[in-house]
Amino acid sequence: MKGILLNNLGSPDSTDTKDVKKYLGEFLMDERVIDIPYWKRWLLINGIILKTRPKKSGAAYKKIWWKQGSPLVVISEMFTKKVIKKVDIPVALAMRYGSMSMEQGIKELTDQGVTEIFLAPLYPHYAMSSFETVVVKAEEILAAEYPEVKLDVLEPFYNEPGYIKAMSNNIANHLKDFDYDHILFSYHGIPERHIKKSDPTNSHCKIDGSCCDRNSVAHHTCYRHQCFETTKEIVKELGLKEGTYSNSFQSRLLKDPWLKPYTDFELEKFPGLGKKKLAVITPAFVADCLETLEEIAMEGKEEFLKFGGTDYKHIPCMNDNDDWVDVMVSWINNWKNK
Fold this sequence. Notes:
8 strands; four-stranded parallel sheet; single chain; alpha/beta; Rossmann fold
């Protein structure tokens, strides 16, 4: 029997410091998130980060927390329920980190007799700290507990026509009544070294402004290239004029070089360039979460207005948008029927 495992990042169980600390500990100790030797990672996270960050992050989560719980989890559950109604095979939802574990999601499927799983990481782009860690975790669980179960994986869908069309429709609907003079495509940031680590050629990805435009097998695992391709496809679909949009990367951690330009720096700069009516899109996320609802919709707006901006609009993610549900259902049916 075939079954579907939808997977997203995860969330603390609550905004309490102890729950946030537990969640951050699991997340940051992942070697594909902070890719330094184990002993250095343990000392950094347990000796420094977890002594201060959980309280700060808890306060941020409190700003966006819903009565039903974490927005990311609640939205993912709503999305999953809609998908379940439109397919005729078992569907489970799991998170890479937190209580809604991948172990539980896989068990839910195998308890129903599933012997072939279609894993759908809900990340449009390839990154070792998102897509890759989900796939590796699923493979580890199956090898240890369910060696007879076959695994197929939904590849990154950053330029898949259905995804682009659904994203573009969502953007257009939210821009109907907003008179913008610039659109910022703000993608989740990752360290520059992750780009080079994911390069199978060990030579193509130089992050020099041109490598993303030169054809290479490295593009299959290059987060930066895939983000730029998403923007290009959406721009084409919406017919946006050159000069009215740009890309940036958000959510830096530690002091290492991360992908540039940085979103917060761009928000400070735009008003001085005459771009005072800004719409911000976050195409790296399919569901609104801390990074979109607090960092972009709240902090980003405050920063933009502080530096002279006049109008600011955060465009929500696709969440449980029916177009997005239908796209996922079409991918599931294509896999099921092949």
